[in-house]
Amino acid sequence: MNGPDATEPRWLSSGFVIVFAGGVLGLAALSMTVRRGVTEWPYALTFGFLVAIGEMVQFRVDRNRNRAPIATSAALGYAVLRPPEVAIPPDVAQIIAVVGLATLAGVLPRMIAGLRWDVVVSCRRVLSVACAAAVFAAVTPSDLYWSGSWRHAIPLTGAMLLAVLSAATIDALVGAGQATERFNQPFPAALRDEVVMAARIGMAMGISGILLAIGTSLLGLWGPPLVLVPLLLTQFAFRRFASAQRTYRTTMRSMARSTEIAGFSSPGQNARTAQLAVAMGHDLGLRPARMEALEYAALLSGVGQLALADPSPGGTSLLRSREERQQAAEIGASIIERSGVLDHVAEIVRHSNDPYRLGRANNPNIPVESGIVNVALAYEQLVGEGSGQSPAKAMENIGLGIGAEYDPVVVESLRRVIGRGFQF
């Protein structure tokens, strides 16, 4: 494929701005900390060590960003630390400097070992922790600390929650901006997805950071080893989830290749269709769960052809009669339903060859993803390898079927995606 994969993020100007902002902020904080001196070295070293370890064992949950729950929780915990024996709590500059240096110390071994790492995500973490530290310092008096009294515990807990919420907000806004630039996703939809992710995963790491800060404040340096157990369980759960997702996606792609091996589709056709379908799904602002189902449906849209007597010439299913295509879609949906966990994917495939006029135009229960797969497959077969049509000619042919064969909303989305320079 000549163009960038639509399912993979690209290094664009927003990434440079984030790295530049994180680097400048870190250097400024380090300079101020060196000039003023470091307070409470044991706590700085302990939390810095946790951040570095968390960065070293970061991993990729999805294809959009790496996750480092231990590093995030430790960094947030240090930002809201207020133990009673600390005469002078760490200021914002020291917190940023410690987190920044620990982050760098954590990613360097990954760089040397050639492991995947994401400097943009690491810098985003530094920026969000800086925001949390600034908010916590602004709303918390210097003489307020964990003394065992509810009179101190309630306002401190509220300040911690506010700091974590501010960090999550900043990270969600930055992440939404990145998604808009990387995937051409509408900003409101991107922000919605980031907020949902923050509520599900980000707040879990935030609460873990609060518990780490409270445990350390009450138990001293005995606190981190005790609180680290749930953090390790969280890390383990994230890794299991990531592994399951990778296995799932590999299985889907292997199933999709069965039609190529049998000659019912051209080599790479299903992957190209899924690539374009995902780009259109981003353009239409679909939620992550629907995006995943859309990708799987596009990959498996041709599975039902295996039940037909003969392969399509050149793997072009558009040359078949409508009855054959709809029969193949129904058979494919039945095969997918047998998995027991892909019912929504099966529903998309079942209607992926329905003409818009007789389908979704009269039945709003038919998912828009079916129309996306229909248009993506048609465009791929007109423009894909060996087809010979130019994108403009293919768009002209598809345009002739607007309102009858193809969903007008989906076709307009295809125009926008192609207009941005999409290529297989």
User: How many structural units, i.e. domains?
Assistant: 2
Sequence stretches where pLDDT stays below 50 over 5 or more residues: 1-11
* N-end to C-end Cα span: 5 Å
Largest pleated sheet: 2 strands, antiparallel
Number of helices: 15
> What is the helix fraction of residues, given as a range?
55-70%
> What does the average pLDDT come to?
84
Indicate the multimeric state.
Answer: single chain
Radius of gyration: 26 Å
User: Strands of the biggest beta sheet: in what spatial order?
Assistant: 1-2
Explain what the structure shows:
Keywords: Membrane, Transmembrane, Transmembrane helix. The chain crosses the membrane at residues 12-34, 41-59, 92-113, 125-146, 152-174. The protein is mainly alpha-helical. It has two domains: 13-244; 262-419, Hypothetical protein af1432, CATH 1.10.3210. The chain is 68% helix and 1% strand. The protein is built from 15 helices and two strands. Strand 1 and strand 2 form a beta hairpin. Helix 9 (269-283) packs across helix 13 (368-383), helix 9 (269-283) packs across helix 15 (408-419) and helix 10 packs across helix 13.
Write out key terms for the chains shown.
single chain, 424 residues, mainly alpha, Hypothetical protein af1432, two-stranded antiparallel sheet, 15 helices, 68% helix, disordered N terminus
Task: Please sum up the structure shown.
The chain is mostly helical and 424 residues long. The chain is 68% helix and 1% strand.
Set out the fold topology:
Layout: H1 13-36, H2 41-56, E1 59-60, E2 66-67, H3 69-79, H4 92-113, H5 119-139, H6 150-183, H7 187-219, H8 223-261, H9 269-283, H10 288-300, H11 322-337, H12 343-350, H13 368-383, H14 391-399, H15 408-419
Helix pairs in contact: 1-4, 1-5, 2-3, 2-4, 3-4, 3-5, 3-7, 4-5, 5-6, 6-7, 7-8, 9-10, 9-13, 9-15, 10-12, 10-13, 11-12, 12-13, 13-14, 14-15
